[in-house]
Structures are given as C-alpha cells and as structure tokens.
Amino acid sequence: MFKYAIMAMAILFVFIGCSKKTESPLTYTIANVGDLTLRQTQDTTVIYAVGYTSGKQEAVTLQLDSLPTGITVAPATASGTGTFVANFAIHVATPAQGVYPVTLRSTTASGVKKEQRINITILPGFAYSVGGLSDVTVLQYKDTSINMPVSISVASGTPENVTIVPDSIPSGVTITPVSTSGLPPFSTTFAIRVKANTTGTFPLVFRTSSASTVTKTSRVNLVIGSNTNCAATIAGSYTASDACSPTPGSSSYTSNVTVTGASQIKIPIYFIGLTANLNCTNGTFTIEPKAYLDLTITGGSGTFNANQIVATYTVSGTVNTVCTTTLNR
C-alpha cells in the first residue's frame, strides 16, 4: 500500500508541475518607425502598426517621450492588444530649427519596456514677404483713382495660400477688391479711389495671413494735400435741386459748374448763374450779388467738397425768399 501511495503522489506532483508551466512572454513588432522631418507650425500624423508575433496576449502601450519644448503629441499614449494601429497627431509650434532626439517607448501590461530612438528634424516654417506697397499722395476735393500693386513672395517653407485684406480705410476712400488671395509667388492690384475733403496724412492698412502664420500688418500713408486750384477740381456736371422759403416748391435739374477763375466758379441755378469765390482751404465760398430781370440776389454763401456743393442765398424783388441749392455729382 505504501508503494502505491508514493506512486500516486509522484503522478500528482508531475500533474501540478505541468499545470503551472510559465506562458511564453509576449513578442511583437512596431512598423513605420523612422526619423521625421517637419516644419515649424506644421501639423502631421504618424501611424505606428503594432503586430503580434507570439507569446502572452496582453495590452501594449505606446508613447512618444522626451519631446522638445514647442512640440506636442495627442493622445499622450495609445494602447491595444494583439495587432493594432496607434495614431499620434504631432503639432509643431515654435521650436527652433534643428534635430531633436525623441524616444518611442512601448510598455506591455506586465511592465516590460522597449525603447526606440528617432530623430525629429525641424525645418523653417512657411514665411512670406509683402512688396509693392507705397505711399499715395492726392489733392483734396479731387476724385482720384490709383492702382496699388501688391506682391507676395516666399521667404521659406512650403507655399500656402495668402489672403490680403485692406483695413482701416479712411473716410472718402474706397479700395477694391475687399480681399484677394493666392498661392505665392503672386501679384495683384488694388484700385484705390479717393474723394476726400480733409488734408492730412492717413494710414492705409493691408493685413495678410495664411493658414499657419500670424496676421501681418503692412502700412502705407495716404497724403491728402491742400488743393489751391480747387475750382478746376470741383467743376463738372451735377444734379441740382432748389428749395426756397417762404416760397414753396422745389425743382431738380442738371447744372454744369464751370471755372471762371483760379478760385472762382459759376454755378448755374434754375433761373441765374451764381458766381462763387472759393476758399480752397476750408471748403467754403461766398456768392457775389447778381441782378436778374426784376430780381436781385443780394449775396450768400456755401460749402463744397469732392461730391457736393451747397449754396444758400437771398432773393429779393417781385419775390422775396431765401433759397438753398444743393448740387450732387
């Protein structure tokens, strides 16, 4: 009996030993591991393929470590079991140009780690320069059109669309188009129309931007000079309307304003031509007395700018009234 008991115990120990046999450790591969070349302000995605080879099935976690300041990765870690794909979105913000060593670390659920060293090379990001802009000089009251050429050239990096937008436009100035864009190098032209009344120096602002760069501001000066020969500037065809009080009623007609002197114009109104002596500096004028049949204009005054003339005068005689004639281009 003792002999059989010993044999049974031996068989039991063999069975227990076999059941506790250690499982082989996990082996796996990581594909697509290699050095990266990126540009400043660039976003990219790297994809690592983890392949199960043999051994224990357990989770593997991947992580990009030892990143330099200015480079971020999302997600921070990526995990999976068996064969899976890990995607990492890399954003390059502001690191200096150069080569940076980075560690790709993989860790199994049981704590076994592997490390692979890769290099990230940072090249200059997209940069561009703005050319062609220059100061503009015009005269007050004068309707002036100017073509402003603008050129965009590549300074570094891979070209991307650049948008140009005129901004902070002074009163009396229109710029078309309101915006334009293109892939550098390219050139475009903005049409600037100035019908300004006030002298001085005013900024014209052009803002440029691209997908990966901050907005740049380019400024030129709009210089509006004093117009000492303003009579010639404001002469031309207008639509006129008269309004008189206490005499009711008004009329509308075409009035062709002509030059009669260096600072003098003739303003045809409904029934007579008014002679106006201009003050080109402040945009005002005085009206000379005038007789017409049994009516007398005893004088008056007015204002003018690039688009409008307003004259107020007194009529006496068979009709006694105060009239205002407004002329618009």
Percent strand equals over 45%
- The helix-and-strand class reads mainly beta
Q: Which segments are poorly predicted (pLDDT under 50) over 5 or more consecutive residues?
A: 12-16
User: Which value, in Å, is the CA radius of gyration?
Assistant: 42 Å
Helix amount, in percent? Answer: under 10%
Shape: rod-shaped
Strand order of the largest sheet: 19-20-21-22-23-25-26-27
The major sheet is characterized as: 8 strands, antiparallel, barrel
What value does the average pLDDT take?
A: 87
The multimeric state of the shown protein is single chain
Quote the distance from N terminus to C terminus. Answer: 131 Å
Number of strands: 27
- Count of helical stretches: 2
User: What is the H/E string?
Assistant: HEEEEEEEEEEEEEEEEEEHEEEEEEEEE
Can you describe this structure in just a few lines?
The protein is mainly beta and 329 residues long.
Written account of the structure:
The protein is built from 2 helices and 27 strands. With 329 residues, it is mainly β. β8 and β9 (113-123) form a beta hairpin. The longest helix is centred in the first third of the chain and has 18 residues, at 2-19.
Keywords:
329 residues, mainly beta, eight-stranded antiparallel barrel, 27 strands
Give the secondary structure arrangement, pairings included.
Elements: H1 2-19, E1 27-31, E2 36-39, E3 43-54, E4 59-65, E5 71-74, E6 78-81, E7 84-92, E8 98-108, E9 113-123, E10 127-131, E11 136-139, E12 144-156, E13 162-167, E14 173-176, E15 180-182, E16 186-194, E17 200-210, E18 216-225, H2 230-234, E19 236-245, E20 250-261, E21 264-268, E22 273-279, E23 284-287, E24 290-292, E25 295-304, E26 308-317, E27 321-328
Parallel strand pairs: 2-9, 11-18
Antiparallel strand pairs: 1-3, 3-7, 4-6, 4-8, 5-7, 8-9, 10-12, 12-16, 13-15, 13-17, 14-16, 17-18, 19-20, 19-27, 20-21, 21-22, 22-23, 23-25, 24-25, 25-26, 26-27
